[in-house]
């Protein structure tokens, strides 16, 4: 059912590939990178790349849900992205208003539930409202979780979790000996995802091969797939190629290969 055409990066040969439907990664996380370069290559302003990138989010969220992915986490704005020129930041802050304003009916139709992780209290009021409304409108959806990392930073997330645990300890409600990996995991912004909180597959587009402060705790055993396409050029086929690459890996989690 999930077959796609794949072009070999070295030989240019096109082959039809088949995805193993029994090995679809449950949690896929994507660092959506390259919007600015995509636009610059077309002599367009950077924000044109962000706009096109938003359309890609719609395409990819729909495709991911049809593939049976359970959680799709998308890195939309980092705690470091405030360093950009204010016109670009303002545009990025308006995108969720536009995105949810037009896409919520499709999300409901596809049974997709919206989640947002990040320091949302620091977002402009209109952005916060768009996020709140989308979460409320999709709260009864039982299919894929579409998790946006918005004003998110992996280190900040860990700091916040540690502060909370320290407060509980100080109040006498937590014995430091009870601070386990599970306990820390539960305090992170993915804690509500339970067993699904760690990405199985992490994709980064645009050729950059770094994490840029994304899900530092949760990616301990994720498979990384770096792709050269800029995010606005990403689509269902590129997603399937990344999943195909994932399916060729042997996850060992520190144990031995199980052949
Ligand atoms: C990713 O694209 C989107 C955000 C970080 C908000 P970029 O804006 O980082 O695009 P490049 O990396 O400059 O090309
Ligand atoms: C990471 O991309 C953040 C998002 C995709 C939202 P950046 O473009 O901000 O990362 P760096 O600056 O290249 O590391
Ligand atoms: Mg970038």
From TrEMBL:
Q: Which cofactor does it need?
A: Mg(2+)
Biological process annotations from GO: polyprenol biosynthetic process
UniProt KW keywords: Magnesium, Metal-binding, Transferase
Enzyme kind, highest EC tier: transferase
Annotated Gene Ontology cellular component terms: cytosol
Cofactor mode of binding and number, as noted: Binds 2 magnesium ions per subunit.
Query: Residues in the active site?
Result: 33, 81
Lineage, opening ranks: Bacteria, Bacillati, Bacillota, Bacilli, Lactobacillales
Q: Mind telling me which InterPro entries this protein's record contains? A: UPP_synth-like (IPR001441), UPP_synth-like_CS (IPR018520), UPP_synth-like_sf (IPR036424)
Report the protein's function: Catalyzes the condensation of isopentenyl diphosphate (IPP) with allylic pyrophosphates generating different type of terpenoids.
Looking at the Swiss-Prot or TrEMBL record, what is one Pfam family this protein matches? Answer: Prenyltransf
Record GO terms (molecular function) = ditrans,polycis-undecaprenyl-diphosphate synthase [(2E,6E)-farnesyl-diphosphate specific] activity; magnesium ion binding; manganese ion binding
**Residues engaged in binding Mg(2+):** 33, 223
- The question of whether Cytoplasm is a record keyword is answered with no
Member of which family?
Belongs to the UPP synthase family.
The EC number on file is: 2.5.1.-
- Recorded protein name is Isoprenyl transferase
Positions of substrate binding? 34-38, 46, 50, 78-80, 82, 84, 204, 210-212
Q: Which PROSITE patterns match?
A: UPP_SYNTHASE
PANTHER family linked: DEHYDRODOLICHYL DIPHOSPHATE SYNTHASE 2, DEHYDRODOLICHYL DIPHOSPHATE SYNTHASE FAMILY MEMBER
Is Magnesium one of the keywords UniProt gives this record?
yes
Assembly behavior: Homodimer.
């Amino acid at each position: 059912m999930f077959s796609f055409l794949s072009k070999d990066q070295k030989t240019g040969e096109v082959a039809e590939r088949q995805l193993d439907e029994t090995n679809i990664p449950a949690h896929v996380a994507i660092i959506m990178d390259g919007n600015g370069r995509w636009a610059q290559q077309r002599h367009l302003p950077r924000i044109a790349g962000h706009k096109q990138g938003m359309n890609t989010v719609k395409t990819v969220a729909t495709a991911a849900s049809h593939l049976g992915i359970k959680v799709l986490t998308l890195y939309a704005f980092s705690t470091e992205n405030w360093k950009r020129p204010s016109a670009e930041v303002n545009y990025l802050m308006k995108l969720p208003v536009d995105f949810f304003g037009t896409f919520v009916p499709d999300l409901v139709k596809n049974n997709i539930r919206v989640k947002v992780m990040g320091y949302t209290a620091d977002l402009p009021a209109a952005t916060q409202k768009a996020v709140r409304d989308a979460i409320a409108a999709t709260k009864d959806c039982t299919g894929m979780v579409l998790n946006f990392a918005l004003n998110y930073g992996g280190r900040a997330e860990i700091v916040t979790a540690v502060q909370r645990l320290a407060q509980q300890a100080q109040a006498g409600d937590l014995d430091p000996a009870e601070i386990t990996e599970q306990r820390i995991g539960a305090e992170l912004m993915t804690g509500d995802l339970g067993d699904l909180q760690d990405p199985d597959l992490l994709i980064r587009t645009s050729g950059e091969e770094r994490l840029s402060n994304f899900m530092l705790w949760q990616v301990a055993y994720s498979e990384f797939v770096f792709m050269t396409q800029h995010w606005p050029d990403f689509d269902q086929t590129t997603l399937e190629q990344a999943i195909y690459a994932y399916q060729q890996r042997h996850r060992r989690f520190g144990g031995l290969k199980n052949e």
